[in-house]
Amino acid sequence: MSVADEPWRASARRIAAAVRGGEVSAVDVVGSHLERIADVNPLVGALTVVFDDRAREAAAELDRAIAAGEDPGPLAGVPFSVKENIDLTWSATTHGWRGAVHAVPDQDATLVARMRAAGAVPIGRGNMPDFGMRWECDNDLFGRTRNPWSLAHSPGGSSGGDAVAVATGMAAIGLGNDYGGSVRVPADAVGVAGFRPTGGRIPAGAARRREPVPLSLQRFSSAGLLARHTGDIAAAFQVVHGADGVDPFAVTMPFSPYDGVRRAAIVRDPFGDGTDAATARALDVATDALRRAGWEVVEACPPLLEEAVQGWRLLSTTEMQAAYGPQRWDPPLGAGATRFLELAGRAQTHLRSLEEYADVWARRAVVAAHWQDFFRAHPVLVGTVSEARPPLVDADLIDADTAGGWWRRYRLSVAANYLALPAVAVPTGSATDGLPVGVQVMAAAGQDHAALAAAQAIEDAVGVRTPIVPR
To answer: Which terminus of the chain faces fewer neighbouring Cβ atoms within 10 Å, N or C?
Structure first.
């Protein structure tokens, strides 16, 4: 099928090649996506703001540049969504909170500016929970985002709006961020690829630092990318990565095709909780795919995994409750975020002394060193994003024990955040319940290309099942 027939179905790389080659205009690509948004977004609530006029104007300008013989950029005409907490001058950066409805930034975040400079076109804002404070996607300002595979189920969070926009063909690429799985969890729930890079490889989503943030947020969080195709993530990462002279923690590292040792460790039941049939099947599919692609695959578990998970939990809950407790907001956070924080606060353990706090941070270096040794022997680690199937909406608000223990679903995922490691969520098919299932591929810090290469091998064997029609 030609891109010109239904541009909203095409991959980002295919769109860019077609626009650059004159097969289709950027105006037609953007128009097709806007029509798709009009049809689908009322059902799923993924995009909070749709840039109808401005996106068409940007596309028309791109077409004029092409007609004049100018280089339109490597992502020419590719529509992308921008999470509500990433600065884009076209609308307020609300973080999903009523108190920031007028907070229109005066500069684009670096990753947004780089996407636009590469010819990509912002198409809308992706929904999220208030300040990303749940693995859900609901707030009082914009309402709920629903999983297109089953409207009764959660799409995950906090980058749920961007994940659903990508999964349904409303955007080819989504810009999100990931502090505890916030890109990979929704990617896994809706059947798309989601990537959190090594910490610092993509500059922060704020155009400039405006206020202090907790140390765990500085170390554990990263901007990330969502797409239907792993190759599209690699193409966008090629555009947005690297230091910008603004984010003091952003770094520049080479990014090129992986040519290292093709050896992967599969971790099947790292915490001894047992593995359900869908998870076991996903890991089998990934194992078979990698072996067919020439990878050696062994079963192995990374060292000090439980300490990595507990380190993330203790530091994140201690700092977030201190910095972002529900009593600090005027106007208040939305009902869902307030309820979740209240319930979780009753159940979770917090560090009670400076000595405990300092010791957990100090131990992080020890854990990181052990994992670095592990990755020398196994350049890639394959496991799950979630240890449970996608839940019904608001299942995390049942009671204090449920809210306080929700992080246990994503234990392997939060270990990547704790150590600032690259990790890619990649679909492997669907389970008997009809919902997507997949795995995540992790690698050593700075080895993002290794994780993406293994994810690509899995995708090549499995195929891509999105975009889909909500049901």
So the answer is: N
181: closest CA among 127, 235, 224?
224
Can you list the alpha helix ranges (DSSP code H) found in 135-276? 160-167, 184-190, 215-220, 230-240
Q: In which element (H, E) is residue 263 found?
A: strand 263-266
Collapse the DSSP code of 337 into the 3-class scheme (helix H, G, I; strand E, B; otherwise coil) and give the result: helix
Which one of 182, 216, 386, 413 is the catalytic residue?
182
Burial label, 383 (beta-carbon count in 10 A; 0-12, 13-18, 19+): buried
Q: Is 11 tagged catalytic?
A: no
**Residue 15 and residue 172 in contact, taking contact as beta carbons nearer than 8 Å:** yes
The structure tokens listed for 433 are 């319940």
The answer to whether the predicted template modeling score (pTM) of the entire model surpasses 0.85 is yes
Q: Name the catalytic one among 83, 154, 221, 222.
A: 83
Radius of gyration of the chain from its Cα atoms, rounded to whole angstroms: 21
Angle at which helices 305-324 and 335-347 pack, to 10 degrees?
120
Give bridge partners of residue 381 from the DSSP assignment.
265, 442
- What is the residue-level pLDDT of the chain in tens, covering all 471 positions? 689 899 999 999 999 999 999 999 999 999 999 999 999 999 999 999 999 999 999 999 999 999 999 999 999 999 999 999 999 999 999 999 999 999 999 999 999 999 999 999 999 999 999 999 999 999 999 999 999 999 999 999 999 999 999 999 999 999 999 999 999 999 999 999 999 999 999 999 998 777 888 999 999 999 999 999 999 999 999 999 999 999 999 999 999 999 999 999 999 999 998 888 999 999 999 999 999 999 999 999 999 999 999 999 999 999 987 777 666 788 999 999 999 988 988 876 778 899 999 999 999 999 999 999 999 999 999 999 999 999 999 999 999 999 999 999 999 999 999 999 999 999 999 998 999 999 999 999 999 999 999 999 999 999 999 999 998
CB proximity list for 297: less than 8 A, separation 6 or greater: 263, 264, 265, 266, 287, 290, 291, 382
DSSP code of residue 48 = E
Contacts within 8 Å (CB) and 24+ apart, 368-375:
368/419, 368/445, 370/302, 370/303, 370/304, 371/302, 371/303, 371/304, 371/308, 371/419, 371/421, 371/444, 372/444, 372/445, 373/303, 374/265, 374/300, 374/302, 374/303, 375/443, 375/444, 375/447
User: Among the options 25, 158, 221, 316, which is catalytic?
Assistant: 158
> Is 158 known to be catalytic?
yes
Euclidean distance between CA atoms 325 and 334, whole angstroms: 13
Q: Compute the distance between CA of residue 72 and CA of residue 82 in angstroms, rounded to an integer.
A: 21
